[in-house]
Amino acid sequence: MNRKPESALHLPHRRLKLDTLVRLRWLAVAGQTTALLVVQIGLGYPLPVGPAFALVALSAWLNVYLKIRSPSALRLSDRAAALQLAYDILQMSGLLFLTGGLGNPFAFLLLAPVMVSATGLSGRHTLALGALATVAATLLAVFHYPLPWPGARDFVLPLVYSVGVWVALVCSLAFMAVYAFRVAEEARQLADALAASELVLAREQHLNALDGLAAAAAHELGTPLSTIFLTAKELSSEFDAGDPRAEDVALIRSQAERCRDILRQIATLSSDRDRLFQRMPMSQLVEEVVAPHRDCGLDIWVQVSGEGPEPVGSRNPAIRYGLSNLLENAIDFADTAVSVVCGWDDGTVRIVIMDDGPGFSPDVIGRLGEPYVSARSGRGSRHQTGGGLGLGFFIAKTLLERTGARLALENRPPPDTGAIVRVFWPRGAIESAGDMDR
Which of 189, 200, 238, 353 lies in the 20 to 30 Å Cα band around 304? Predict the structure, then answer.
């Protein structure tokens, strides 16, 4: 299968915007300021006002500095974003240290920076921030100022309750971080895979658009070439038979004629009236898919047969690319041979691709078609490209399903080994005149 891009999680458009972190920090500053004012003024509880407001002011000044120094649209690297989130954890830990440690009901806000990291940063940085939050929670369970409370006596939580709060905080941190990271990761993978699918189709359409450009070029170049040809023809009568210049003129004339023939062929291939090149039978489709892989070192067996007349469909880059990708996967994992069987009847067209490799892994065969799902068991592919991650299979499945196809996957029954991929279309979807290469 196709290899997962090493930069899948580090593309520029995947990075957190500086403005996002700044806005979240302004929200934290507003909330912290409100909480301190309510406790100090509204409830009248004693607390170290100076150090607490100093920590809040530090976050505010950091935001002002970042807004002045960097544009809002700046996208941060994973490391820079992780450093800012680490600061937020330490700043919140400092406030909790001054206001009762884990006994403070706002202690669970330590989770917030880790959640932001889980949705936007790599697993390595999220793990590091989670470890930092865990260490901070552990220290706050032991070292902290008393919780602001009315009266002279300090409010002290029982040891068992403090341990319970710590366990709950750490467990919530681990569960929520893993859950948020997995959800965001799947969304990123799906977005990348869909983008890859669109790029493949765009490339095919771009190549097909060159056909129209070739026709335009043939039309524009026809006039000057005709002029050159006629001029050379007239000049040829100006020289004697033995004159070396006559040979040069004859050469120019012959090459101009050759150019005219080439342009005439290009214009013919590009003409919408030539249905031969816009429509193709299933046997030709299978041959176009198989032909580039004839020299792969394996036996490729092709069988084309069916009931009734052979279906004739439109040239469709999605079908060609999807089938080619499935065939490449079979070739990658086959031991000696790959079979491609095409058949049809009055209502259905089907193509079956089989190989004699290790087959699909039982634990993932039900999830194939999702991006980055390892598709094979046992040994790796013949080319050992680090593949087997399912992006190519996802693209193939997506493109084929857009044409009305349905895919069925299974392993060959014992004692045979290998995988079987069946692709089915309603016959009407294949014979439709739409979706031509353009």
Answer: 200
Can you read off the two tokens belonging to residue 368? Answer: 């194939």
Residues 6+ apart with CB under 8 A from 314: 278, 279, 280, 432, 433, 434, 435, 436, 437
What radius of gyration do the chain's Cα atoms show?
A: 34
The answer to whether 142 touches 119, Cβ cutoff 8 Å, is no
Beta carbons of 197 and 399 less than 8 angstroms apart: yes
Contact criterion met (CB below 8 Å) for 373 and 354: no
**The two structure tokens encoding residue 347:** 């209502």
The answer to whether 73 and 117 are in contact (CB under 8 A) is: no
255-262: long-range pairs with CB below 8 Å, 24+: 256/225, 256/228, 256/229, 256/232, 257/229, 259/221, 259/225, 260/222, 260/225, 260/226, 260/229
- Adjacency order of strands within the sheet including 337-344: 299-304, 337-344, 348-355, 419-426, 406-411
The SS3 call for residue 312 is: strand
271 against 203, higher pLDDT: 203
Rounded Cα gap, residues 347 and 429, in angstroms? 10
Q: How far is residue 26 from each of residues 29, 60, 83, 373, 404, measured CA to CA in Å?
A: 5, 7, 17, 40, 50
Residue written as tokens 């700046």?
A: 74
Dist. CA 318–CA 434, nearest whole Å: 12
Tell me the torsion sign for CA atoms 418, 410, 1, 364.
negative
Q: Under DSSP, is residue 339 helix (H, G, I), strand (E, B) or coil?
A: strand
| Cβ-proximal residues to 47 (8 Å cutoff; 6+ apart), any chain | 36, 39, 40, 98, 99, 148
* pTM (predicted TM-score): 0.49
Distance from C-alpha of 48 to C-alpha of 144, rounded to nearest angstrom: 12
How confident is the model over 76-94, as pLDDT tens digits? 888 888 999 999 999 999 9
Location of structure tokens 């299968």: 1
**Pairing state between β 299-304 and 337-344:** parallel
The closest alpha carbon to 401, from 376, 420, 372, 426, belongs to 426
**Token couple for 330:** 């079979």
What class has domain 279-431?
Answer: alpha beta
Name the maximum alpha-carbon separation found in the chain.
Answer: 125
